[in-house]
Design brief:
The chain contains 12 helices and 10 strands. The protein is of the alpha/beta class.
Length: 337
Amino acid sequence: MASLAFRSLRSPVRRALVALALPAALSLAAGSAFAQAWPSKPITLIVPFPPGGPTDVASRIVAQKMSLALKQNIVIDNRSGASGTVGAAAAARAPADGYTFVMLATPTLLASHLYGPTGGYDIFKNFTPVGSVYDLPIVLVVNPKSLPEVTNLQGLIAKAKAEGGKLNYTTAGAGSFGHLTTEQLKTIGKFDMQHVPYRGSAPAVTDLIGGQVPAMFSDLVAVIPHIRAGKVRAIAVGSAKRVSLLPDVPTVAEQGFPGFDATSWGGLLAPVGTPKDVVDRMSAALKNALADKEVQDKLESVGSFAAYRTPEQTGVRMKQDFERWGKVIRDNHITNQ
């Protein structure tokens, strides 16, 4: 009798467990089938900056290689504005179906420090990291006619002190990475210079070459042709190590500031909720693309460097840079104006 009673109790319990487990199993099966079928149509990569800039150029180089591996076109969709927040907002609103991604760049990561709430999205809550794509070194350059005696960082600092803080420097804009880097360097070097912001690298570099401003902390992409032409002189790179395109130019760290490391970078993000299998496959395609020598050479030729990191490593770097440069912005009362 006890045995019969036990079996009679087990049957409803078993049925209930099966009923609970079935939807989950079906969901997993559906997700697996979706991932296996993905991608079945072109993928959109939103680049939140104008065509021709470092983020756009790097995106196109890498997307072309990834398209071959995924056997689907990756279509670049440039949506520029407000340090990349216009494009990022569009990506945050897109369906999390594996067919929309966005290229993150350092200005977009830091935008909320400068603009406040950014288009109704949160860079950490509304996106899933796929992997980092490139590192973009920044370089301190001077006009050799305006500052003929300045051949290294210590020379620029000495000149700035001799000018009583009135020496001008320019960047691609208020709150740009060059601006933040220079302000941090001023703090630890105990010297001052006056910031003359421009709207973009191109006009800033034009006036640097013309002598209207004597110094600039710029991304390498914008100034490497002019360094090679002798129109501007590179005196320091912000990265922890020297860059291959400028092997004779010492780092800031080598010139009296141990541990100094300022490198802009770009990474691939997906809208939160994108299936993990899809994120993993996209990340694997990205890793393989960046391991390709041709891709590496193309990136280096324009001043950026292939730098793959896993989704987890990319997420860590996002948080570290968000906190580090956020403190620089707050301490120096930097705004986007």
